[in-house]
Write a structure and sequence with these properties.
With about 375 residues, this protein is mostly helical. The chain has 13 helices and two strands, in the order ααααββααααααααα. It has one domain (about 15-360). It has helices spanning about 10-40, 45-65, 65-70, 75-90, 110-130, 140-155, 160-180, 185-200, 205-215, 225-235, 265-295, 300-325, 340-360; strands spanning about 105, 110. It has a two-stranded antiparallel sheet. The longest helix is centred in the last third of the chain and has 33 residues, at about 265-295.
Length: about 375
């Protein structure tokens, strides 16, 4: 059994701190838009606060469930099956914002691709813990892994959401690398994935425009380049100390959806370089403590599960911030714990709870 109250308090504090800070910044970024759309400045704040309560409760529950129970075959494959069914259900549901990413249940919107991230990490940890010595077995390990990852990534891509599908593939490749996959397999799989992503980009004109805009956003400053230009302007105008909480100008209908994928831009404008750096440091601490928990796990399943969750949360945060800074093509990837989105917040906090349970067992 886990030692009572022996979880990593630094990791716990970072997760809870980012969540509470996210509520403040979501209210700051969304109040004007919420008033204009719904007649209430608190619309997005209240929905995110409800998700935060659910997520924090899920995190506490996950902290008290031995992670080794999650790596049992019935749990792992039930999670994969449930994720697959939910992703298919999202594909056949009504479109929201011209995509099939959500299942609408009354006032609640569930995003299955977020649930799929946790299910995928559990599967990879389970598979690699059992087959670590045979990780280079093409038939016994590599192909089964590729089939599961490919199936989930394909369903997410069809929503369409190429960015999240790429996150799935990246997670699998990194964990296989940590398990000792030979370079020839890494090179072939990595090259094949890059080629596939390139072909998928080329077959969709809007993705091609995003790449061209990323290379030169000034070519279409009022069209495809508008979003990234407004984001960079928000970051640049923050200076060292920022304009002050609530004083962002770019959130006033210049920066599209400032409370979701571009929340980091608002943070940079209102809190300046110091505020943006504090967020980056917080994710750096999360990475440090997550790796410590994973390396201290008493078994290989705990190691892969801890590393998978840590890499998922931190790399996704890096990708989101890179987009807001114009270092990556625009893509709808949320900033964990901070961006508006109930599914992302609840699943991220649940994953953090699993990581905290691993830290209880760490030596």
């Amino acid at each position: 059994m886990a030692r009572k109250l022996a979880f990593d308090k630094t990791l716990f504090g970072v997760g809870v701190g980012l969540t509470l800070f996210g509520l403040v910044m979501i209210y700051s970024a969304s109040a004007v838009i919420a008033m204009e759309r719904f007649g209430s400045a608190h619309h997005f704040l209240l929905k995110q606060a409800a998700a935060a309560v659910v997520g924090l409760c899920a995190m506490v529950v996950a902290m008290h469930v031995d992670y080794r129970r999650l790596l049992k075959r019935p749990v792992v494959y039930t999670g994969l099956l449930a994720s697959t069914i939910l992703l298919i259900a999202a594909l056949v549901s009504d479109r929201t914002h011209q995509v099939h990413r959500w299942i609408i249940l009354g006032p609640v919107q569930v995003q299955p691709s977020e649930i799929g991230k946790l299910a995928l990490v559990l599967f990879l940890a389970y598979l690699l813990a059992r087959k670590e010595a045979r990780v280079n077995d093409l038939v016994g390990t590599i192909i089964p892994c590729a089939v599961v990852v490919g199936q989930l990534a394909l369903l997410v891509y069809l929503q369409p959401d190429l960015g999240t599908a790429a996150v799935y593939i990246m997670l699998a490749i990194v964990l296989l690398f940590l398990a000792g996959l030979r370079w020839k397999y890494l090179t072939v799989s990595g090259g094949a994935c890059l080629l596939a992503i390139g072909l998928l980009i080329m077959q969709a004109p809007y993705r091609v425009r995003r790449i061209l805009t990323f290379m030169n956003p000034d070519d279409d400053p009022l069209g495809a380049g508008f979003q990234v230009r407004q984001s960079i302007l928000a970051v640049a105008s923050g200076g060292l100390h920022g304009q002050g909480v609530g004083e962002s100008r770019q959130k006033l209908f210049f920066l599209p959806e400032p409370h979701t994928d571009f929340l980091f831009s608002v943070i940079s404008e209102e809190l300046g370089l110091l505020g943006a750096a504090a967020v980056i440091v917080a994710f750096g601490i999360l990475f440090w403590r997550g790796v410590v928990a994973a390396f201290g796990a008493p078994d290989r399943g705990g190691y892969y599960l801890g590393m998978g969750i840590t890499i998922w949360l931190v790399v996704q945060a890096m990708m989101n911030m890179a987009v807001t800074l114009g270092l990556m093509p625009t893509k709808g990837i949320p900033l964990p714990f901070l961006s508006y989105g109930g599914s992302s917040l609840v699943v991220s906090l649940c994953a953090l709870g699993v990581l905290l349970n691993i830290s209880q067992h760490s030596s």
